[in-house]
Model the fold of this input.
Amino acid sequence: MEFVSLRYFHETARTGSIRRAAENLHVTPSSISRMIASLEQDLGTALFERSRQGMRLTAAGTILSRQTQRTFRDFERIRGAIDDLKGLRRGQVSIYAPEGLIAEFLPTVISLYQAKFPAVSFNVVFASTDRIVEAIIDDETDIGITFNGPERDELAKVVEYVEPLTCLVAPSHPLARKRSVLLKDILAYPLALPETSFGLRRMIDTGIRREKLSPQITVCTNSLELAKRMAMLGSAVAFMPRFMVMDDVSAGRLRSIRVQSPAFSSSRVAVCVHRDRNISYAARELVESLKRHFSQIRPHR
Done:
């Protein structure tokens, strides 16, 4: 079983397409097809189900894909360690994070980091809390930033930032002039909420259940940015910690209001890595950068 055939298989499994795998690896689709066919012959089983929609892994293919994913992640770590010995500071860092961090936090962190290490590239994926935890455990990412994430034995929290969850409204909204507001008063208006796989949503649902209230959910989405935009336009009320929207609040595009509910008092943003897995020098430096940036935020109480 050759390394090249495993690499071709891995890229096809990752992209779900021979054509995209060929483009990413700078080879012809026929080369990919031949290597996969050879691998299937060696293993004595089909690895993909081929259809017009793309390449879908079989049960055997799924088992192999999990292994190749770990293998190629380990190979990248080995390459990074060798570069460190040479005094080189390059590589790629993978981050899974809540989308709400994109507008005002991660771009600053990454820009400052790249000024120091210009040869390091980033793969940034925005996802729900459940998906971020899964990515850390399955070795799909170096670093995961979770929002009210579950406690898991496999996860190590390198830094945690705690801040109340606030409600977001447009400056023209009837609640906009209030400094704090009861949850029952908020629920008199339409809401834009994330899906239930988001830690943020579970926090909101806990508060609503405790007070036995009935929300009017106008928008349910996997995009925190969309929820924020709906609030900005006055179409709905959204919820986020204030640090995620500080630029919009300072510019007068949003109002961030304290919610008078114990369930909303402590939203937790945590930078996590796998407890039993070594990360590269580049990833370790980013973790240190994230720790510094979170320490500089002043929680809104």
